[in-house]
């Protein structure tokens, strides 16, 4: 039987993951699965209305800009992408929360 601390940790992590996805959605960012219950979300820039001039194939450009700013994320293909070299998806995560089992 899991301890109360373990149960609290799992419940808290789920709340944080959900809030992360909801916050992105509130800015018009399209989440591929509509939300998340894990420590990362997959964003589709081609279907996001809140993006500043971004669209299909811009995942690599955002990945580079984020890297230059010291932000770690991954570019990913999304449904409809013709090339993995020019993806529209981004994988954003809260790995530190997961690592510390908050």
From TrEMBL:
InterPro entries: PyrdxlP-dep_Trfase, PyrdxlP-dep_Trfase_small, Ser_HO-MeTrfase-like, SHMT-like_dom. Keywords: Pyridoxal phosphate. The keyword Nucleotidyltransferase does not apply. Pfam families: SHMT. Residues 19-95 form the Serine hydroxymethyltransferase-like domain. Coiled coil: none annotated. Gene3D superfamilies: Aspartate Aminotransferase, domain 1. Its cofactor is pyridoxal 5'-phosphate. It comes from Paragonimus skrjabini miyazakii. GO terms for cellular component: mitochondrion. The keyword Nucleotide-binding does not apply. GO terms for molecular function: glycine hydroxymethyltransferase activity; pyridoxal phosphate binding. One of its GO terms (biological process) is glycine biosynthetic process from serine. This is Serine hydroxymethyltransferase-like domain-containing protein.
């Amino acid at each position: 039987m899991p301890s109360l601390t373990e149960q609290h940790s799992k419940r808290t992590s789920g709340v944080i993951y959900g809030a992360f996805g909801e916050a992105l959605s509130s800015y018009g960012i399209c989440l591929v699965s509509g939300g998340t219950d894990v420590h990362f979300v997959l964003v589709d820039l081609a279907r996001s209305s809140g993006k500043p001039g971004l669209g299909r194939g811009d995942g690599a450009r955002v990945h580079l800009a984020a890297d230059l700013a010291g932000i770690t994320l991954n570019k990913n293909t999304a449904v409809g992408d013709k090339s993995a070299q020019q993806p529209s998806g981004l994988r954003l995560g809260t790995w530190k929360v997961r690592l510390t089992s908050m």
